[in-house]
Amino acid sequence: MSEGTSYIYRVYPASVAQIRTLITAHVGGQGFWFGGVALWLDGAPAPQLQPVTPFATADEVVVAGDFGHAFSQSAEVRWKRYDETTYDVLVLCEHPAEVAGGVPLCIPHWNSQTQVWEDGTWFVCKHAKAMLRETGSSNINVAYTEYLAPNGAVQFQRLREVRVDND
């Protein structure tokens, strides 16, 4: 397990165009995406969870349904639908970033030594074998990095890459 610092930025409200711009700027030109539907059907029935799919440009990422993730080694952009045209977006990365329209997501915590509230730094834990297996797949795994709040109250799993077991 390796450790370091992670950064989370929130963009709200955001449009589909802003999500695509964030994907291009932070995830990069190539990566993977998936999304899901629990409430919003966009006028037609849809699978509840889309498969993890590679993309070469942000225009190939389908921003529909209730939520989605686009990710690469560089960063992850995840979105949650708020209403018909508005999304709440998080950008997760291991380096400081200029996120258009974004504000850093900080966790205030009490420093018992200095007796003051401080904005905490998110910690990162990379596990060598930590992977999520795609539902219904026997060979698609998604590697992730854990982001931990300084007080331990919140954690995120930032998706990093897709690995295919050929065994």
Question: Could you tell me how far the N terminus lies from the C terminus, measured between alpha carbons in angstroms?
Answer: 25 Å
Tell me the major beta sheet: 10 strands, antiparallel
The chain-level mean pLDDT equals 88
Structural class: mainly beta
Low-confidence stretches: none
Can you tell me the overall shape? globular
Q: What is the topological layout?
A:
Blueprint: E1 2-14, H1 16-27, E2 31-36, E3 53-55, E4 67-71, E5 75-81, E6 87-93, E7 102-104, E8 107-111, E9 116-120, E10 122-133, E11 140-148, E12 155-164
Explain what this protein looks like in three dimensions.
The chain is mainly beta and 167 residues long. It has one domain. 7% of the residues lie in helices and 51% in strands. It has one helix at 16-27, and strands spanning 2-14, 31-36, 53-55, 67-71, 75-81, 87-93, 102-104, 107-111, 116-120, 122-133, 140-148, 155-164. Strands 1, 2, 3, 4, 5, 6, 7, 10, 11 and 12 form a ten-stranded antiparallel beta sheet that branches. It has a two-stranded antiparallel sheet with strand order 8-9. A hairpin with a 6-residue loop joins strand 10 (122-133) and strand 11 (140-148). The longest helix is centred in the N-terminal third of the chain and has 12 residues, at 16-27. It starts with a strand and ends with a strand. The model has no long low-confidence stretch (mean pLDDT 88).
